[in-house]
Amino acid sequence: MNVRVPFFNTLFPVYAKDIYQVGPEGLGLMFTMVGACMAVSAASAALILILLIASPHSRSLRLSRYR
Questions:
Q1: What is the CB neighbour count within 10 angstroms for residue 16?
Q2: Cα–Cα distance, 55 to 46 (Å, whole number)
Q3: Which three-class secondary structure string do you get for the chain?
């Protein structure tokens, strides 16, 4: 699920039960929200890249100090 935090799936049930005090429905909602946030952030990043590429000034952007 999350590459940077491998124990993510292991700790989520503990958080749901002990900290948030929710049952299986709450745990499912927590996993759903993580997936929804990942989808929104991926779509936002794609939109930003599309807008940068389609910009009329994209041809004049210099990525380095050399020509």
A1: 20
A2: 14
A3: CCCCCCCHHHHHHHHHHHHCCCCHHHHHHHHHHHHHHHHHHHHHHHHHHHHHHHCCCCCCCCCCCCC
The domains of the chain are located at 8-54
- Cβ neighbours of residue 52 under 8 Å, at least 6 residues apart? 58
Q: Is the pTM of this model over 0.90?
A: no
In the structure encoding, which two tokens stand for residue 17, read together?
């039960």
The per-residue pLDDT for range 10-56, each reduced to its tens digit, is 888 999 999 999 999 999 999 899 889 989 999 999 998 888 887 76
